[in-house]
Amino acid sequence: SQQGEEDPQALSIQEGENATMNCSYKTSINNLQWYRQNSGRGLVHLILIRSNEREKHSGRLRVTLDTSKKSSSLLITASRAADTASYFCATPRGGTGRRALTFGSGTRLQVQP
Amino acid sequence: DTEVTQTPKHLVMGMTNKKSLKCEQHMGHRAMYWYKQKAKKPPELMFVYSYEKLSINESVPSRFSPECPNSSLLNLHLHALQPEDSALYLCASSQGFQETQYFGPGTRLLVL
Fold first, then answer.
1. pLDDT at residue A95 greater than cutoff 70
2. Are A45 and B42 an interchain contact pair (Cβ–Cβ within 8 Å)?
3. Hey, is A81 helix, strand or coil?
4. Distance between CA atoms of A21 and A87, rounded to whole angstroms?
5. Where would a tag sit more exposed on chain A, N or C end, judged by fewer CB atoms within 10 A?
6. How far apart are CA B16 and CA A62, in angstroms?
């Protein structure tokens, strides 16, 4: 089964609104990462939050991590049309000591101008 | 320089062809990865290289053959592929296995 599941699968909002995406995972982790992918392109790393952190900010991005619920959320404030993309969470495979990441199912965000 | 480059950008091949995908990074990263991604799906891990040695093979069919000639280069050799192998192939690198991964733009592969 997938380590990370995201919801919603798709989200459509107007420019200027906030967008929130959620990620759930199954095993203990050292960190959780969020990536963005524009259509048909490579993934771009957005933010990494470690297991001892509860919240992290980067520009218009805010990520929270709740290790007790094994969940994370990504908030994009004041969205722009350029934020239209797919967003994936990623966690270390099989727990804390594995040599790869597993990507969640992703949220496709559409920001209408 | 945080760039990972991949060539070619697009590739069309027949089922009897042999082709290679190339990936290059100059960040001194010790881990390099190949992923396969189908439309509207997350990337699926294929191979992981650590210090130029194959560390993980996710039970990938032998028609895909990875190679790491040196610490900066990663190849994926393709032979006798099937139409269902058509996908976006992504290369990535990272300093540590659980740290930030830097992705190339991908190779869009179509198998006829």
1. no
2. no
3. helix
4. 8
5. N
6. 49
What are the residues whose beta carbons fall under 8 Å from the beta carbon of B91, sequence distance 6 or more? B4, B6, B21, B23, B32, B33, B34, B35, B74, B76, B103, B104, B106
Q: Six-digit token pair at A69?
A: 């619920």
Which two three-digit tokens encode residue B9?
Answer: 């950008």
pLDDT band at A94 (very low <50, low <70, confident <90, very high): low
Rounded distance, CA B69 to CA B20, Å? Answer: 13
pLDDT tens for B76-105 read 999 999 999 999 999 999 998 778 999 999
Distance CA A63, CA A32 (A): 10
Cα distances from B9 to residues A1, A15, A40, A72, in angstroms, run: 31, 32, 11, 34
Minimal Cβ distance to A30: which of B4, B42, B98: B98
Mean pLDDT of A16-34: 93
Quote the minimal CA–CA distance from A61 to chain B in Å: 17
Half-sphere exposure for A27 (CA within 13 Å, toward CB): 16
- 10-residue stretch averages of pLDDT, chain B, 112 residues long: 90 94 96 95 94 91 96 96 97 89 96 95
Q: Which residues from B are below 8 Å from A102, CB to CB?
A: 45
Burial class of A39 by CB neighbour count within 10 A (0 to 12, 13 to 18, 19+): exposed
